[in-house]
Fold these 3 entries.
Entry 1:
Amino acid sequence: MTRSLIQAVEAAIPFAEDLFRRLRERTRDTVGVTRAPYGEGEQIAHELIAEAAGGLDLEIQTDCAGNLYMTWPGETREGHGVIAASHLDSVPRGGNYDGAAGVIAGLVALDALRREGFAPKRDLSVMAIRAEETSWFSAHHIGSRAALGALPPDELDAARRADTGRSLAEHMADLGLDVAALREGRRHLDPSRVTAYYELHIEQGPVLEHEGLPVGIVTGIRGNVRAREGRCIGRYDHAGGTPRKLRRDAVMAVAEYIGALESCWDRIEAEGGDLVLTCGRLFTNPDAHTHTKVPGEVNFSLDARSHSEETLDRMEELIRRHAAEIGGRRSVRIDLGPVTRGAVATMDPRLRSILSDGCRALGIDAMEIPSGGGHDAGDFAGAGVPSAMIFLRNPNGSHNPDEDMKMEDFALGASLLAWALASTR
């Protein structure tokens, strides 16, 4: 099952191309695509994918959170079998492949295995996960956590969608989902009964493109320390009439603060540590700022990520310490707001070995690669499910309308996924 498997996948590529085309057309925004979680775009995507799975004679099921399961029954129906999954929502005005490529690759993989005459011992399921993107609800991986029974009930009301201001529970109720069951913590997937979880995803950085390789086998997913709602409160003063020693300048304080954290980043990298640090939001109040006024307030965000829990511990301490020290010295208050923590997720060594064996057997050029972005695979791994990820080359980055994926690379990734689903015992 080598060359013939690749040929079986290639025979299903027109099916995949048609699905990608229809997804793009049906969820197109003025720029890129928009598939808001628990909104029109994501719902359209789920309905399209369910219809396609029905055409492949797969069993169709949804859970209380609206996650979609498309299953090829195995000889034994014990447990949940092996799951290939990704999400179908997108960032606002994003690209067509982030998430969707993994779901469509799962369908292509099952179709190819069926063409090959493969008979699954356990259930093989493709899972289309809801609400992975954090840009909408400021809550991470809602669908996967709900499926695993790990979604705190208070998030149903506390998490509000950025574009509507309405709660997660309200948006779920609009789609007829069982919010009451989620409040009770009901789960669809028992982690102890899932044999393995595989997620194919476009790479969200330029490494594979730079290395000239189509496929990456993910070693792990960076954890994070985040302050999404940071504020620096100083005092508004006249720009010409207030001497430096009497100023409480919020912009200058935040500039020093960010510079101090970048120096920490320099030191950690010089020591051989793994860290990326981002200040993704940085702005003054447009109703109050002017070029003739000392700024009295700045809003900002911080996102520190690492494959080392020790480095994250260190960065969390430094983020807090420098805020207090610089704030006190400059007579401002640097309020970080809630500081959240996402755990490092290591991909399962046995599943990674299966993927490596598959690359050799199928003649796929690949490399091991860490993931800087978060993925649902991290939640499955954190719940104790053996998990692995396949990255596909993407020359234009992710979370933007220009994200790209060669269909030749997609075919290789889907072939590798099919190999893994057939090889996992």
Entry 2:
Amino acid sequence: MPGGGCYRALYSPAWSAASELVAAWLKEAGLLVRRDAVGNVWGRVEGSRGGRAIVTGSHIDTVRGGGALDGALGVVAAVEAVASLVASYGRPTRILECVAICEEEGSRFNTNLWGARAIADRIEPGEVERVRDGDGTSLADAMRAVGLDPAGVAGAVRRDIDAFLELHIEQGPILDEQGPRLGVVTAIAGTAHLEVTVRGQPDHAGAMAMTRRRDALLGASAMALAIAEVAVRMGHPAVATVGTIVVEPAQVNVVPGVARFVIDARHSDPAARADLVNEVTNACKVIARERGLDVDVRAVRDRPPVRLDPRIAEVLRRACAAAGVAPRDMTSGAGHDAQVLAAAAHAGMLFVPSIGGRSHCPDEATAAEDVILGARALATALRELSYQS
């Protein structure tokens, strides 16, 4: 896209092309391929004993101007791992599947983790008709445009998955700066989104004295600084971000009367995350009171922290050891499909380093040897689960 980076938005032409490419890879590997009710692409190898499935994969969509590895690495590694296992060892004992999950990022529609939520039966009533993109296109119409029936979303639900393994880039600097080269994720941070509306008084930018103003944007700016200070004071892994802000009336010669922004607050510990939300809320109220402003703080999203399955973590640790790496146990500050699929299966995640900790940008990169190492460890874990159990 202009300015660099990738953009594969849900149900867009780029997304469709990526889905078709993954399906072609799966067919080439000899897997049984299907597209489910929301567009997740599955490749399956029947196990000699049947039963519940062992699944690996990640998402194929991206943020705007994103990198080449976020999500896509886990999809490509899944195909390669399963194809190599079947080629080397033949039919598995357990059902073994790859999945290219249709959406995780929410970059076109505000539907983060849509594909995983569909699998885990977490789609909200009326969501498919209610949600619209920036151009006003409904999620339902976007589905119809790529040959999917929005009335059939429930058909994507899976209740027969035993384990889900996701290989992903870390998206942070810990493995790259401190090592080792592989990380086993034990928990995924919970995310709270708080919509803050600051109300002051619009006035003429030239005629109203600075000392008499009730400037909503200045108040919001002070709140953004205070919010960051709260997270710094709490310490890692607390994070709090203001990534978007709009003002009214948004005219160069008018003192802003209204400012709206959204706080993204995350922590892996439930109690600490609750404290973080309370503290940033109180910081906004204190600043509003000091500046003679009104403020309203409303929760618009609340995803609790998720502990991943200890048994799968042990399998991944053994796989890393077999690859010659003693892995680091890690908490993920970023959200992932595994956090939703943990409600439907025993879920685990494996991290490889992100060079410089960069992600969600064109500079996102991982050394080729670390990609290979991660894929090898993933294949080893899948072999234990699907051939030896």
Entry 3:
Amino acid sequence: MPAQLLDGRQIAKRMRERLREARDRLATRPVRLVSLEIGQNPAAAVYVRNQRRAAEEVGIDMEVQNLPVGTTEADLMARIDELNGRDDVSGMLVQRPLPPGIDGRHVQMAIAPHKDVEGMHPANMGTILYKEPLLPPCTAAAAQQLIVETGMDLRGAETVVVGHSEIVGKPIAVLLLHHLSTVTVCHIGTRNLIEHTRRADIVVVAVGKPGLVHGDMLKPGACVIDVGINQGADGKIVGDVDFASAEQVAGFLTPVPGGVGPVTVAMLMRNTLRAAGAEV
């Protein structure tokens, strides 16, 4: 039997409906999300468009600031400092990729932790070790939400995370540990990846390598969360999991596109509302 697809678009839609209710409970309190982008990147434009659409649906005022090409790290830091001091700004994010000469770590650390709606400030990342934070990294939180949507019992579940990035791999591993899953993190130094993935009840793949994980690498009935976004040989967007073969083995599977991505945007909206004081 083919895997049950985890439809991120429908899950995100339900989330936005609940978030709209939370927004309404804030009444007249301003909720503003500011997006900073240097120049105009076609790939980033797609993300901004999706974010704006979601913000409008939820009732968040999203302000997009396009800084000119040639903006220096000092210029960007000054703009972030200004936004940190604005009471009408609930949260902010800086669109990637950043131009050469600007250190993304410096940028992330400059954003006030309580306005860091991407959840990537070291203070928010550090909180993950102690509890599920108020503002978790959006993509990791989305992956976790998709797993929860399956109804699987996470306690004791054998989980393999393929990829150890700060954005997804490391935080999702710790978030699932909070649910008492038994988590293994695999990466470029892992020997015999298949030995790990074949015993996993849950597999999260986030490495940016098209088709890295095939169906013969999976345990029958496993929940497979594909975080990868890659351009295939035919120009189409594909994930890190070979969808055709995985669909015949997995119990649950996220499509690419339409899986993790929409839920990530919904998590950004949730973080923005939380930053504004909403209980959601």
